[in-house]
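To whoever picks this up:

The parser on our side crashed when reading a file containing two proteins. I've narrowed it down to the boundary between the first structure block and the second sequence. Both blocks are reproduced below exactly, byte for byte. First block:
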Amino acid sequence: MSLEKFLHKAVSSWMSAEGPDSDIILSSRIRLARNLRNHKFTILFSNEEAREILLKVQEVTRQGAFYPYGDMELLEIDEMKALEKRVLVEKHLISPQLAENSSNGGVVLSEQEDISIMVNEEDHIRIQCIFPGFQLMAALERANAIDDVLEEKIDYAFDEQLGYLTSCPTNVGTGLRASVMVHLPGLILTRQMNRIIPAINQLGLVVRGIYGEGSEALGNIFQISNQVTLGKSEEDIVGDLMSVVRQIIAQERSAREALVKTSNIQLEDRVFRSYGILANSRIIETKEAAECLSDVRLGIDAGYINHLSKNILNELMILTQPGFLQLYAGGPLRPAERDIKRAALIRERLKLDKRDSEEEIL
């Protein structure tokens, strides 16, 4: 498989498209947790009951109920190889928990990969919609529409006082988890992030790494999401998160402007040193690659670099993960081999962008 074909098939629509405020907000995600009435929660149910739930969701998919949202297909986790599951995790299409506990698990994926419905993860059903840029309300509308389709066919576990019932008490109520993936190099470089994170937490929000709970904030990329799901409407939860994120956007832009104004040559040097490492390295580890990609993306946004795609951070942060590297290589790789393959893939990707830019000029 050539690199061009690999990129075409590997990158989801939200990674390659631009949205509002996409210089800072890489993506917006809505996740709805749902369970079926008269069925034990996943921590207690039998394999037979899990299979029954999977088949119910599969039947809804086969009936074409999701037709307005494009072709959608249910994939059974049990039938996937370990590498295939890892790639889906790296693309944010399934959770690590679903990949690891695969007995009668499944995922319904849209052709554009902006919709995924996990089956038999922590809850019976988890609906996820991802949009590029800052589009939380649009993602909420889409998730609610998918939820309505399922609720017409499946009887949910719902309480008039508590709302939707979930395996984890923190999700009871709306079952909603709204999040944005943000790129905040300005706040990191100006050393403001350590002050901002506690303030965000006090507002009932949480800041996590690129793959959510327990993950590291590689390349200055963070996930910011709500913690409260009970006692508020979905619109209020999303509205509160949007209000805080707008303030973070303003602070990040202010930090970037200050860096350009007070440390212009130092910032430009940092950007091009990182570009040089990416363009020439023969061996590069995940963390160093993420840091350099963050610098280069900042350089693109600041106008220092104009021959690379703005989406390069989104793409290469996914394409350089261990699962993708091994898929690209056609088989398992030891850590040292992955570092070599990662460097080669980045060099080739940068050459593609440079070539396309030169062709546009001609």
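<<boundary where parser fails>>
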Amino acid sequence: MEWKKASSLDEYEKLVIRMNTPRVVIDNAVCASSTLVKVDSARKQGFLLEAVQVLADLNLSINKAYVSSDGRWFMDVFHVTDQNGEKLKNESLLSYIERTLSATTSSAASDGDVGLTVLELTGSDRPGLLSEVFAVLADLRCDVVEAKVWTHNGRIASRTRVRDGDSGEPIEDSVKIDRIEARLRNVLKGDHDVRSSAAVGDGATHPERRLHQMMFADRDYERAAAAETGPSVSVQNWVERGYSVVNVLCRDRRKLLFDIVCTLTDMEYVIFHATLDTDVKQARMEFYIRHKDGSPISSEPERQRVIQCLQAAIERRASEGVRLELCAHDRHGLLSDVTRVFRENGLSVTRAEVSTTGDSAKNVFYVTDAAGHPADPESIEAVRQRIGELGSLRVNHDSQLACRAEKEEAAAGLFYLGSLILCTTDEILKTRENRIGKTKVE
């Protein structure tokens, strides 16, 4: 009797799991210009963010989106294209998307932080700050495996994954960790910034979501200028239905929907319905939201705070300045040397993405002059020459493309420093394939 009860319970639990597992449909026939990805799932706080995160991590463009809540269920529809604006035809990519969205938990939360030490920094931005940070890490024998750096509204946030430069292992010595944190705090507090912080993070949160959280906690959304200078964001209450309606109009770019959904989720709002429509330059979005307790936005200060926070979320990833891409043989102190060259030539880094794979380092920097204006071409050329003198880098003199700035229509020059290797969708899949949860419902 007890065995039968246990068996019956197991079958019931399996039925519940099947009923609540998201159902994913990927269709290339519905739309002539994009691939349709449809997800039906039980309503769960944060699932929409997980779904958008999967698409964003693959650098896919979401051209249209529809989100609708019917009772206890969600239906999410995304029209997506690849980095070339084409429909998705790679079978391994389509299979990866289907398996990942069908999983009951996010598969890329930690982004491979196991076995590494995560350092999180926030503070007041200034010219040369990133150079000082990397110089400290090099001096303390810390090898940077990956780093993401954002700046916005005079503030900076970075999330850096490091390992011990001597042993190649995670940094577990508490004395060394304390020394690293103290040195970095001294650098950040050079301007007597009481809000700055340097600490070891747990690495459990998606890295870009974590950057949003760090900048939000640092109150980078507080701006001296009028709100009209940022993206157009409005918030109104639909009293009859108990929703707050958020409308956003801004320049379209990749990961835009992720940034907005991430911010609303971390501010503890639930998105019940949403639409996204894009054209060549603009994105129009509408979100119907409530607090977790079911109530809409209740005061003018709260409404203004939502507007400011969404404007900040859109602007943080907006890359201003000249885009410099570097690919070279990785070595200790490489980032310290490169950013020192930037500093010595009057360039300031507004955003950076650093990654290493084996012995190869792939780095992207967006740079302006010290005042935040477009970088002088002579300074860029001087940097190009100096980088070549470092010996471990090869300079591609023939590669020069255009880089769009978020707030300026004019194009800025793009130089490739070193031997540039583009990260394709296949490479992203290979990197993330090992992180997919392999648990299947039998």
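After patching the parser it read the second block fine. Confidence is low (pLDDT under 50) at residues 1-8, 105-111, 391-425, 434-442. DSSP finds eleven helices and 17 strands in the chain.
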